[in-house]
Amino acid sequence: MSFKKKAAAVAVLCALSAVSMVASAQTIRIANQGDALSLDPHSLNESLQLSVTANVYETLVGRNKDLSLAPLLATSWKQTSPNVWRFELRKGVVFHDGTPFTADDVVFSFARAQGDGSDMRATLSDIKAVRKVGDLAVEIETNGPFPILPDVISLTMIMSKKWCEENQATKPVDRRKGIENTASFKANGTGPFRVRERQPNVRTVFTRNGTYWGKIDGNAQEIVFTPIANPATRVAALVSGEVDVMEPVPVQDIARINAAPNARVITGPEMRTIFLGMDQKRDELQYSNVKGKNPFKDKRVRQAFYQAIDIAGIQRTVMRGASKPTALLVGPGINGWTADQDKRLPYDVDAAKKLLTEAGYPNGFEVSMNCPNDRYVNDGQICQSVAANLAKIGVKINLVAETKGTYFPKILRRDTSFYMLGWTPTTYDSHNALSSLTACPDDKGTGQFNLGAYCNPKLDELTKKIQSESDKAKRNEMIKEAFKVHSDDIGHLPLHQQSLAWGVSKKVELVQLADNFMYFKWMSIK
User: Fold this and answer.
1) What is 3-244+507-525's CATH superfamily?
2) 299-308 and 379-391 helices, crossing angle to 10°
3) Tens digits of residue pLDDT in 315-330
């Protein structure tokens, strides 16, 4: 065993020992394949990051157990004009340090989330202004009619203006540059749990907030969150009783866990879509042996890649059936998805070879592919399968697989030629995917996660119209048209929606949501 592997094994054993030592009757121990990269709620728009911080920080509008909208720091909201919404704020709420929550914190937090270094800018790019209209009321003005504004802000977490100013954390850190500040490792929210201890990539301990304004349904007094990257170690920790909850469960281990006397696997559909993106902006790819031009600017090359990927084989062998192949960047459960559009081009190696030849690459070419190996279900193996598929049409993939801690800062800088990404529309509406993933990138945050800079002005025009259209039938027709434009362009290479699989002790009750958020306030242990 190499020194690095020994060190990693020792770190996991130490973390599990620490977890066991703090376990008590109302402590729930959670293991995930990765860690939240920061405690700053505006620094990274990534599901695990937001799921962790959503237990500490709160939003104006949240979600119920059925994912319908729920009042949190706002008790009510209404449109006062086509472009203006008024939110009444909750009385008697305090931050964990005892500071009262007011409209000033809301105005500050939205400005922070829309500012430099924030990864939430794309979702808020259509907000023109946030104004205080009383100690416990704010107005949000949008650039035009925006009927889904309450959905859009359901993940914009509110921070204490006073605390941020005192701790030099008035601006979020830019994860692309690896910068940190006090908010990266300390937290002061209004949520049902507080952060007691933070050791990045080792463990984070949360304790129940005794001054929480609302009801906490579960009985958990303490949550110990431990990242365990190795799937076998994670499964063993659950089966042995060293952890109470773990995710994701490797698909090959579902039967083993269900056969254990003390654990079971909770499964369900997930709204996340896994897809591949390609650099379509640079005139020459950064990481390819093709010089003087960019093969991904040619639709025939993009289509060749698409039709060379054996998605049914990936579903069968890599995902063990725990995925749904897709032709779109959204799946069932997201407004605007339709089954008639969700039909993939056929897997056809001969057709793919012909397309490459027509594009001027009869012998294929080389290109590097960036891939995480600890973020999505079997992500590394999926990329290996894609590489093997593309080899059949003469494309040599130089696979660069790495942990998400180094992967995301790199690809978010657009330092990639070919990459994997997963996306859950946090508004549960297709406009989120269109504006974040397919819109032409600009300096306001639109197209922020369109990392290959695919761009079609017709699609942009439709996306803007979708945003302001209040007639749902008309709006959904425009969404359908937008997805047709994107599919015809082969703007990205959709793969599948993965299935949720959480390993849970039989002593624990919790709520599994299709957005893969894990809320501690709904967790109980016998």
Assistant:
1) Periplasmic binding protein-like II (3.40.190.10)
2) 110
3) 999 999 999 999 999 9
